[in-house]
Amino acid sequence: MKTREDLIQEAKKNVALEAIKHVKNDSIIGLGSGTTVAYAIEALGNRVKNENLKIMGIPSSYQAFQLAIQHGIQITTLDEHPIIDITIDGADQITPELHLIKGMGAALLREKIVAIASKYNVIIADESKRVNILGENNQAVPIEVLPFALQLVKSRITELGGAAIIREGKGKLGPIITDNGNVIIDANFGLIQNPQELSVKLKMIPGVIETGFFTNMTDVAYIATENKIEKIQK
């Protein structure tokens, strides 16, 4: 008998398979991060092997890079291909309006760059990531910060009404260091009625590199439940 966890993983695989239907031959693919996207990268690798699908991937994290190599997906860069045909990525929270919080995997800066460079953005997630308003369930907003400005940024976040915590590593002392050599602050603002406005205020703080708000960037999202796949489209 399948456990609930088995059903969740099966549902994640199903949304991954749904997402890769958007991928056509000779495409440049942005590869996001996270457990659900890992299934999509594996499925794309199977298409490369079994269908002779010709694609090139631009990974947004070292995790995505390793997975792409493992599954036989040819790697390229934004320097070589500054326009991406489609990006498949995950989310930490997603609203009915397709507003997202991303960055719990500490790859938000590169994920946003890849998303902005993409003609079409597909988000895949399990139903635990679906909310009515960003910030529900005490979800923090990840913010990538220049280490030199860490204390300044923390104080300014507090002035904006947020509770700022430097994300610490697990199994090591000190903060998480991103692929870009920066640190992550997780800032809790409670329910966020206007994520675009808050994102602008945060990015005006010197030393803030990028925020985990992804608004007006997603074209379609597939949400995995135990029984079906829900589609949210712009």
Please sum up the structure shown.
The protein is an alpha/beta fold. 30% of the residues lie in helices and 24% in strands.
Can you walk through the features of this model?
- The relative contact order is 0.17.
- Helix 1 (4-19) packs across helix 2 (35-51).
- The protein is built from six helices and 14 strands.
- By secondary structure, the chain is an alpha/beta fold.
- The strands form three sheets. A seven-stranded mixed sheet has the order 3-2-1-4-7-13-14. It has a four-stranded antiparallel sheet with strand order 9-10-8-11, covered by helices on one side.
- The mean pLDDT is 94.
* SS class: alpha/beta
Could you give the distance between the termini? 38 Å
The number of distinct β-strands equals 14
Count of DSSP-assigned helices: 6
Apparent shape: globular
Low-confidence stretches: none
Largest sheet strand order: 3-2-1-4-7-13-14
Helix content: 25-40%
Radius of gyration computed on alpha carbons: 18 Å
Biggest sheet: strands, sense, closure? 7 strands, mixed
Share in β-strands? 15-25%
Succession of helices and strands: HEHEHEEEEHEEHEEHEEEE
Question: Average pLDDT across residues?
Answer: 94
Explain the layout of strands and helices.
Blueprint (H helix, E strand, L loop, with lengths): L3 H16 L7 E5 L3 H17 L3 E5 L2 H9 L3 E2 L10 E4 L3 E2 L5 E2 L6 H9 L4 E6 L14 E5 L4 H10 L3 E4 L16 E6 L6 H9 L4 E4 L1 E2 L5 E5 L4 E5 L1
Parallel strand pairs: 1-2, 1-4, 2-3, 4-7, 7-13
Antiparallel strand pairs: 5-6, 6-12, 8-10, 8-11, 9-10, 13-14
Helix pairs in contact: 1-2
